[in-house]
Each structure stands twice: as structure tokens, then as C-alpha cells.
Amino acid sequence: MIVSSILKLASIALDTAVVAVLSVATAAFDQRAAYHLCRQWAWLNLTLFGVRLRVRRLAPLDPLSPYIFMSNHRSQTDILAVVDALEEFQLRWVAKKELTRIPLFGWALRHTGHIIIDRSDRQQSIASLRAAENQMLEGISVVIFPEGTRSAPGQDLLPFKKGGFMLALETEFPIVPLVIRGSREILPPGSWQIAGGEIEVIVGAPIAVRGLEREELMRRVERFMREHLGAKAGAERPTAAEAG
Length: 244
Description:
- This protein is α/β, with parallel strands linked by helices.
- It has a single domain (2-243), classed as Glycerol-3-phosphate (1)-acyltransferase (3-Layer(aba) Sandwich), CATH 3.40.1130.
- It has helices at 2-27, 31-49, 77-85, 105-111, 122-136, 163-171, 183-186, 214-229, 240-243; strands spanning 51-57, 68-71, 91-96, 115-117, 141-144, 175-181, 197-203.
- It has a seven-stranded mixed β-sheet with strand order 1-7-6-2-5-3-4, with helices on both faces.
- Helix 4 links the parallel strand 3 and strand 4 (115-117).
- Helix 1 runs parallel beside helix 4, helix 2 (31-49) packs across helix 3 and helix 5 (122-136) crosses helix 6.
- The longest helix is centred in the N-terminal third of the chain and has 26 residues, at 2-27.
- It is globular.
- The termini are far apart.
- Residues 232-244 have low confidence and may be disordered.
């Protein structure tokens, strides 16, 4: 098991280094083409992990329309799963600045059109969300983990950050809630031992945002996630919307 995990990690590090360089070079001319490389990277790494991906869509989506996809977050494999599950979309991630410090991966993240948020700088965060709006006007969809970070084993949903919901209200593009199940068992937070298995991605129906308050949007996204994660809304603590 340990030897297998080391070999998998070495392979993933190697292909990530190669794709990072190719993606940044390609993005200098065509960011959409660069994202196609990232999609192949996600598929390859899921294969190396030994992951079977199962996607369940609860409503049709228009691949030519921009959406704000919001997902729960339990493992580093979540990014791979979302990219592969939404293969017909051009996706850009709203990512915390700390991720840009990861060697090569962070460099590629910064130079391929993704939206980097510095939580310690409110003005920069607002400017980054405005940049996301400009990309969406060109048909790009955005992916956000509203919890802001991975939940730890034993944790339910973390309180939601408000930035993604503000972006939805400003742009009036629909929110599509996602639930990822099984990824924590593949690669738990803080672990480097990789287990094969199945990840399920449940893609909800678009939520029209016009006329809704931010808190109501947060409640609807949370309700969807809790329902499909098997959690009970309001169980023994405030909801993520109320806590945020």
C-alpha cells in the first residue's frame, strides 16, 4: 500500500509538472486550449488514483451558458472529479492565494486564467470577483468551494463564505449546486496514502438568483448539499448560512 502510494504520487507529480509547463505556455495564446490540457490532466490523475467516477445529473445544463458551480469540499481529489464530471464546460476556479504557493501547480493556477482570492485583502478579493464576472460574460463557468477549505473527517459542512454568492447576485448567472461523495476515502485531508474507489458527483438543477437575497441563496445551496450528503439541516448547530 505504501509503495503503491509513493509510485502514484511520483507519477502524479511528474505529469503535473509537464502539464503545468504546457498549460502556461498555451494559455499565453489561448486560455481555452490550455484548459483542455487541464481536463486531460484531471482524467489521467483520476486513472492513476484508481478512481471510478460516477456522475448523476438532476437537470439538463446548457454547455454554452455560464454557471457558478458550488460544491462541498473534502479532498484534494475534488478538483479532479469536478473537472471530469463537467467535461463539456470551460471552468475557472476561485482559489485561495495559498494554493499558488504549491510548486508548479500554483504557478499554473495563477497563469491560466483562474481567479485568485487573497482573503487578507478585501479590495483585492472584490477585484478578483469582478475579473471572474468579465470571464463569465465570455461564456466561462466558475467553480467555487463555498466552505473555503476542506472539511476534516467527522466534520459536516463548514460555514459558507459569502463571496461566491455576491458574485452570483452581481452577475445574475445561475448557481448550480454540486455534491461530491467518496473523495475523502480516496485521499483524506493530511494523508498521502491514496486508495482507489468510487467518487460520485451529483449535479443539481440551476438556481435562478434574480430576486433572491444572499441568505436565501446560501440556504438553498446548503439544503441541497445536506440532502445529498445525508446530513440533516440545522442538526445540533446553526446552518452554514446563519454561521457565515
